[in-house]
Amino acid sequence: MLTADEKVAEIRRLYFRTTRHTIQQDLDRALGLLKSMNSEDERERATVYMEGLAQMRADWARSQKRPNSRGKRRT
Hints:
Layout: H1 4-17, H2 23-35, H3 40-65
């Protein structure tokens, strides 16, 4: 069983190490850790990392859908 500090540290690690290919898996893991925290105070400490992960996912999803200058989709 992880302590609240260890859970925040793991979410932070996921934030800094995530890639376009691992973002969904990392976000799911971080969300699981967040849900397992006992208090709102504990969850607040992880908020900035959770928001960052969600923003990365949105940005990367948007960039995959946007056509490049030739009208083709990026891969």
